[in-house]
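1st attempt posting a full record on here, be nice pls
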Amino acid sequence: MIAILAAITIVAYNGINNRAKASAASSAAQQAAKKVMAYAVTNAEQYPAALSDAGVSDSGSTSYQYRVDNTGNPKTFCLTATSQNVSFFVSNAITSATAGACAGHGLNGVAPITNLVPNPSSESGTLAFSTAGSGSGGGVSIDTSRADSGSRSARFTRTGGSGTSGIKSNAIAVSPNTAYRIGVSTYVESGAIPQWFAVDASYGSQVALSALGSTGSWRRASATYTTGPSQTTLMIYNLVGADGVYYADSLLIFQGGSSLSTAYGDGDSPGWMWNGSPNNSTSTGPPQ
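the predicted structure (as tokens):
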């Protein structure tokens, strides 16, 4: 009986505690939004460029994220308040505090990540990948019959080739001495299972991504890669010596440690946003 009462007490306490956290985050988001909108009333209908301009700043266990666009019609803003790892947001369009976060913001205390690949799923009509290696008989093209995300993937076909050839991603600008997380999806229709490597554009020091393991389904390979002291580019590649048909899709490269997931995200993923033109810019959102 005592154990049952203790369990009931714990459940009740957790419920009360969670409601208190949600109430604090909701109230913080609502009060901050009021200050943002009040600022616009006295500043020619311009939302503040930063929350501090409206007298809003992080305090205690509450932190804020904010984005604004005063150039569009209508002008827009969205702010996320997080209190004790619970997030609520308010925007010019959603004026009541709502559980969750603005697109592109961190959620429930987890910071957002930025996918540095500007066309990570080859959706814009140009390829995120090209041919690698010096072998013959291979080529890379956009394919619309099979995709891991969106509606396109990069297809590498090798027929009657010699030597080794494969597929590589476009080089991405990175910072020296920095850890990056990398993920890519591969579908092997026929041929040998490839091994992906992370490397700089000159094929210097490299790190192997996790093994794919099987054919006939989309498989995710990932790795943590730390750039060298003078490294400014990063790409991934694989080489095969056997004829076959291979697909690559959903490329993710972001700055972060090994504890973060490499599950795919781009500006079309829930909670994410493009930082420029869709499928032609970096994108930001919570880890998936």
